[in-house]
Specification:
This protein has about 240 residues and is of the alpha+beta class. Helix content is about 45%, strand content about 10%. A hairpin with a 2-residue loop joins strand 1 (about 55) and strand 2. Helix 1 runs antiparallel to helix 2 (about 15-30).
């Protein structure tokens, strides 16, 4: 999934504002483990807005509207504040630093979004997924789940279904949340941390990790053999059932 995000995110390098918005929102959904209703707009939800973002250079909070271009490029971490999202915990804050990639990065994606919105005269209530229609400049549109799904399908075709383990027909906008959680599992990030990042209140997160189960399980035999010389202390009772 990470390779798919990386390929699709390169849409941010195109001049098409719709493509740029879709690519940036995909990055944010993947890294912040977002539900579709948190990063795309529907008739029944409020996605993240301009005012839900915080930018930091080290420990210093900066105002994106007052910051210079150099300061924006120097941002080291970003936060999303869960305020009106339907399924989120109100007031919860999730923070990410840079990924190391110059495009597929939560910090860079958020900065691109804010710069684009400020250039269009946005206000604090403007959804992050907003963009101006390239054909009708007076019209402001927002990224929807269908657009994300289409971009993911293209990414899977480019990377190759055999490398990812899923076909284009099996992907949805919510797959970014599952893919982000699976990437954390593959990186040996403990499940408590993953649960905190995903704002899961129960072990329901395990259901999202099934896409990475084959990777995780195939490592067990090797680890068991390498650590198989462990012995029990004398007198220790070993459960037999």
């Amino acid at each position: 999934m990470a390779n798919t995000i990386l390929i699709a995110a390169y849409g941010a390098a195109t001049p098409d504002p719709a493509f740029c918005a879709i690519a940036d929102m995909m990055c944010l959904a993947f890294f912040f483990l977002l539900r579709p209703g948190e990063y795309t707009v529907t008739s029944s939800n409020t996605a993240f807005r301009f005012k839900d973002v915080r930018l930091y250079i080290g420990s210093n909070l900066i105002d994106p509207r007052q910051a210079t271009a150099a300061e924006l490029q120097a941002v080291t971490s970003v936060s999303l504040i869960f305020t009106t999202q339907k399924n989120g915990v109100k007031g919860e804050v999730v923070t990410h630093g840079r990924s190391g990639d110059h495009i597929c990065c939560p910090v860079r994606a958020l900065i691109r979004r804010l710069v684009s919105l400020m250039a269009e005269g946005s206000n604090d209530e403007t959804p992050l997924c907003s963009y101006r229609d390239v054909n009708v400049r007076s019209v402001i549109r927002t990224v929807n789940a269908a657009s994300i799904k289409d971009a993911l399908k293209i990414g899977i075709v480019i990377v190759g279904p055999e490398r990812i383990g899923i076909t284009p027909d099996e992907v949805e906008a919510r797959s970014l949340r599952a893919g982000g959680a699976a990437a954390l599992l593959a990186a040996d990030v403990d499940t408590n941390t993953t649960q905190l990042l995903g704002r899961w209140k129960s072990d329901a997160m395990i259901r999202y990790l099934h896409v990475a189960a084959s990777y995780s399980i195939t490592q067990h035999a090797r680890v068991m053999l390498q650590r198989g010389s462990t012995s029990f202390r004398p007198g220790t009772l070993v459960p037999m059932c």
